[in-house]
């Protein structure tokens, strides 16, 4: 805590000094934290790679699809907090993956991996070891990948609805009375 | 057979790749599989008529779940309708939808997916397999009726169809479980061989019947079917005439050998079927929209089929199978004719069409062939079926049903005539309709379907072989029944007289159509099934609002109090009566627990004193991270990792929401001591209870459960060194799949709630545009 010359009343000791998050639509110069933005630039890809590592290492050490997906999701959260994003779709980078699509893909992958054994005459959800380029891979990794994608989708959806959704609401409220409103 | 069904679904999923290049080619590609299904079905005709072709895939042996399929005579007939008519209608759709129609890609894929689901439904020999495909067809119907969701009429009709059929489907699922558990098998062939008895089984059977009645649009559930005419005409021709609405009838046909002699089975079928036939026929006489006229005709014919399939009489069942095939082969081309008329003239209103017969003679002949089969005119398949139906009830001396069917057939003749008159006749006082030329691609499928009715009608032994095989399970009461065969000429007999009377009176009714309609309008209609549906839905909505108003008080303290009281009362009683404190309670497990615990306690105390929401969230976060730290200390790194990540995300979510809330907790200007005290006592007691319960429950475990050791021992087998991972993705993978499904539903629900309120506000502000709606739907 930095020492401030003025005396803060006791009830106000925990009052924030600035905005908690940056408004997404048009960040005012003074409201930007360059430190966070610059850090996010190289933290974002690093965290994403780390999340993939967590996903794969899950079979041997702490990690797995759930943790990996949450880590990747937090990378997106970090980026959103640093730069904001007016639309949910833009958060998922320029691939323009919509969160529901991502969630659906994840669940589809999980279902495919669950039912694939039936095609080989095995009961549902059986897992098998497959040797792939000299590396032993367990088929249940596919289920974990499904979980990973689904969790990222859930986090992005959270950003879309609670993050930019509330921002848009605030913007709309500010524009109330304006004939055009905030066009998406 | 499973491969064939799955192939339909897979190709349907890949179809958008084709439709991106050419809409027409997509329909062409979609038509290949149904056609192949027809060829496969006919190639296996010999086996189907003999022992039948069975196939079983066990897919979850631990739960005794399997896909069971069987091809028999009824299956072959339904394959002709699903595969044969499916291929024709898909080919027809290629020319029906515009070259650049934006609806075409969706319809092509959905129609093919529906064909796959329907194929699975008609071949299923396992009740649970049947239920799966049953609901898939309902969903396909919902999507096909709803189309892009842009029109109110489509949405209403789609929702009504879905609510009615899925409500029936749920009743059926309950019934299936009851029947399956009492009989000890879900196999239809095994059930028919040894039908379950007793009151419980009877309840189950009636519930299954409810499903069949709703799906086949029987009175009083029928209004969804005319409503579903909001769908494009090829969809109506396929789903709501040829195949899907037959599902209920087919199910009755499959189960009748087991239950036809029981009163709770045949009585509702006979009564509701007959009423449906009469109501549908009567309503069809007054419709001015050709498509709705046909829809009420379908309702009527479904009632007819229901009566026949439920009869349990050998001749009746022969008639049932014949009429099932005949109805598909005449109703689908009739719908295709309406589609062509609609396309070339731009209208399908009876009052706006005139002189079309002279301008499009070829189309008129095809329509006449199909309508003649519907009316039961000799040489056509419909005649064979109707003749057999009359014989069945006349021979048994069941005059109520015989006369009822006669009246129903008379109405059928009258609305057949009305259809032809409405579409093709030259009407005085109406301007001549100028049609544009119809594409050959539209005419050819119509002709093929209409002609097949004539060919099969002229050669009775073809259908007779199928019908005899299907009816073989029913015991013949006497020699006449045993020797009955479909034929064009049975000699001068009472059924022939019935046919003649139906034709004559039917044409008479049509000639007097003005008076008949006037009579219809004079009659009061105190009971309307459609109004009944609307009142039911309205009542449910009002009830929901009432319950929400009572239960959702809108006060967070009240909700919390209810939750805490429940926790105190239910597990509390169990704890007091059954719990024992462990003999020794160690103060701490490892030294690191002490500081972590201290942080938790301090944060909890601080929480009760803070006035700023943001600070409260941070303190909750501190508690969460400390618990994560406890997990690390106790050797649960997986758990700790998940705890840290979830805690972080929760805090971010909190902060997002906090932007909408005041910075400070509201302090009551006039603090009421009593309420504050009560809150404090409740919170204190609940907290103490949780702490005590934690200690008591920790003493309940005497030794590590055997299953834990098994998990550890077997995890290398599952290919995982990390036992947690092995549990999550292998041993308890079903739980994982279930959990992520719940997560998806919750996330989708939350997002749509947050985004939907936003949409509402926009709508009130006058900014609700179709684009805004699309945004909501994606």
TrEMBL record, chain A:
The lineage of its organism: Bacteria, Bacillati, Actinomycetota, Actinomycetes, Pseudonocardiales. It is found in: Cell membrane. InterPro entries: CPA3_antiporter_subunitB, MnhB. Its main location: membrane. This is Na+/H+ antiporter MnhB subunit-related protein domain-containing protein. Belongs to the CPA3 antiporters (TC 2.A.63) subunit B family. Pfam families: MnhB. Keywords: Cell membrane, Membrane, Transmembrane, Transmembrane helix. Residues 36-156 form the Na+/H+ antiporter MnhB subunit-related protein domain. It comes from Pseudonocardia xishanensis.
Automatic annotation (TrEMBL), chain B:
Pfam families: MbhD (PF13244), MbhE (PF20501), Proton_antipo_M (PF00361), Proton_antipo_N (PF00662). It comes from the Bacteria. It is a multi-pass membrane protein. Residues 673-754 form the MrpA C-terminal/MbhE domain. InterPro entries: CPA3_Na-H_Antiporter_A, MrpA_C/MbhD, MrpA_C/MbhE, ND/Mrp_TM, Proton_antipo_N. Residues 124-412 form the NADH:quinone oxidoreductase/Mrp antiporter transmembrane domain. Residues 598-662 form the MrpA C-terminal/MbhD domain. Its main location: membrane. This is Na+/H+ antiporter subunit A.
């Amino acid at each position: 805590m930095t020492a401030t010359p003025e005396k803060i009343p006791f009830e106000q000791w925990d009052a924030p000094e600035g905005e908690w998050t940056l408004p997404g639509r048009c960040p005012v110069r003074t409201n930007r934290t360059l430190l966070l933005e610059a850090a996010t630039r190289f933290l974002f890809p690093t965290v994403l790679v780390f999340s993939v590592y967590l996903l794969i290492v899950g079979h041997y050490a702490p990690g797995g699809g759930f943790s990996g997906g949450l880590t990747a999701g937090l990378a997106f959260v970090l980026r959103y907090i640093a730069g904001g994003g007016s639309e949910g779709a833009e958060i998922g980078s320029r691939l323009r993956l919509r969160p529901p699509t991502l969630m659906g893909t994840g669940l589809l992958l999980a279902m495919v991996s669950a039912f694939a054994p039936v095609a080989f005459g095995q009961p549902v959800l059986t897992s098998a070891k497959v040797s792939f380029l000299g590396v032993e891979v367990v088929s249940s990794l596919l289920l974990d990948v499904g979980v990973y994608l689904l969790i990222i989708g859930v986090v992005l959806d959270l950003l879309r609805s609670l993050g930019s959704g509330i921002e848009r609401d605030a913007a709309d409220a500010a524009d109330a009375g304006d004939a055009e409103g905030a066009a998406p | 057979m499973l491969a064939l069904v799955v192939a339909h679904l897979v190709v349907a999923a890949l179809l958008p790749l084709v439709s991106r290049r050419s809409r027409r080619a997509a329909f062409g590609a979609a038509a290949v599989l149904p056609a192949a299904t027809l060829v496969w079905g006919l190639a296996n005709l010999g086996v189907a008529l003999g022992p039948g072709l069975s196939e079983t895939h066990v897919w979850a042996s631990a739960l005794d779940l399997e896909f069971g399929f069987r091809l028999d005579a009824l299956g072959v007939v339904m394959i002709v309708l699903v595969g044969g008519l499916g291929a024709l209608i898909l080919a027809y759709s290629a020319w029906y939808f515009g070259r650049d129609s934006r609806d075409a890609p969706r319809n092509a894929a959905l129609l093919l997916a529906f064909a796959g689901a329907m194929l699975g439904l008609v071949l299923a020999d396992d009740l649970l397999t049947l239920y799966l495909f049953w609901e898939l067809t309902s969903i396909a119907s919902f999507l096909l009726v709803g189309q892009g969701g842009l029109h109110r009429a489509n949405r209403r009709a789609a929702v009504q169809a879905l609510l009615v059929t899925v409500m029936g489907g749920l009743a059926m699922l309950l019934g299936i479980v009851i029947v399956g558990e009492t009989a000890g098998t879900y196999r239809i062939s095994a059930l028919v061989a040894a039908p379950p008895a007793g009151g419980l089984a009877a309840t189950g059977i009636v519930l299954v019947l409810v499903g069949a009645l709703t799906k086949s649009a029987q009175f009083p559930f029928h209004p969804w079917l005319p409503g579903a005419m909001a769908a494009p005409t090829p969809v109506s021709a396929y789903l709501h005439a040829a195949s899907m609405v037959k599902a209920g009838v087919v199910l009755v046909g499959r189960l009748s050998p087991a239950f036809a002699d029981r009163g709770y089975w045949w009585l509702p079928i006979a009564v509701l079927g007959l009423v449906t036939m009469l109501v549908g026929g009567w309503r069809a006489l007054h419709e001015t929209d050709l498509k709705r006229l046909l829809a009420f005709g379908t309702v009527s014919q479904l009632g007819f089929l229901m009566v026949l399939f439920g009869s349990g009489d050998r001749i009746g069942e022969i008639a049932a199978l014949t009429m099932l095939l005949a109805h598909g082969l005449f109703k689908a081309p009739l719908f295709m004719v309406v589609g062509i008329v609609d396309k070339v003239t731009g209208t399908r209103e009876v009052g706006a069409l005139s002189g079309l017969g002279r301008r499009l003679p070829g189309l008129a002949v095809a329509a006449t062939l199909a309508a003649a089969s519907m009316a039961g005119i000799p040489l056509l398949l419909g005649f064979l079926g109707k003749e057999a139906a009359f014989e069945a009830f006349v021979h048994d001396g069941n005059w109520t049903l015989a006369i009822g069917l006669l009246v129903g057939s008379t109405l059928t003749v009258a609305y057949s005539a009305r259809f032809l008159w409405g579409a093709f006749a030259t009407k005085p006082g109406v301007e001549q309709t100028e049609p544009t030329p119809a594409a050959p691609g539209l005419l050819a499928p119509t002709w093929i379907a209409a002609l097949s009715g004539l060919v099969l009608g002229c050669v009775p032994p073809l259908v007779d072989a199928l019908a005899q095989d299907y009816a073989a399970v029913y015991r013949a009461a006497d020699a006449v029944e045993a020797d009955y065969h479909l034929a064009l000429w049975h000699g001068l007999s009472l059924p022939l007289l019935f046919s003649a009377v139906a034709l004559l009176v039917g044409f008479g009714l049509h000639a007097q159509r003005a008076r008949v309609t006037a009579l219809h309008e004079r009659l009061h209609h105190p009971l309307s099934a459609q109004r009944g549906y609307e009142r039911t839905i309205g009542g449910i909505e009002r009830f929901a609002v009432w319950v929400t108003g009572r239960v959702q008080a809108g006060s967070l303290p009240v909700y919390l109090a209810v939750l805490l009281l429940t926790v105190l009362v239910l597990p509390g009683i169990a704890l007091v009566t059954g719990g024992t404190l462990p003999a020794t309670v160690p103060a701490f497990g490892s030294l690191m627990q002490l500081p972590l615990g201290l942080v938790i306690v301090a944060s909890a105390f601080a929480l009760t004193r803070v006035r700023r929401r943001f600070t409260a969230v941070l303190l909750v976060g501190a508690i969460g991270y400390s618990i994560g730290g406890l997990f690390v200390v106790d050797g649960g790194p997986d758990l700790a990792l998940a705890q840290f990540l979830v805690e972080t995300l929760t805090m971010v979510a909190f902060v997002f929401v906090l932007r909408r809330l005041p910075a400070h907790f509201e302090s009551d200007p006039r603090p009421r001591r009593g309420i504050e005290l009560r809150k404090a006592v409740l919170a204190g007691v609940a907290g103490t209870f949780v702490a005590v319960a934690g200690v008591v429950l920790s003493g309940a475990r005497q030794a590590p459960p055997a299953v834990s050791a098994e998990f550890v021992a077997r995890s290398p087998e599952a290919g995982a060194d990390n036992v947690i991972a092995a549990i999550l993705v292998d041993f308890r993978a079903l739980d994982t799949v279930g959990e992520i499904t719940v997560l998806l539903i919750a996330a989708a629900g939350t997002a749509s709630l947050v985004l939907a309120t936003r949409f509402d506000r926009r709508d009130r502000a006058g900014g609700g545009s179709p684009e805004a709606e699309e945004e909501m739907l994606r």
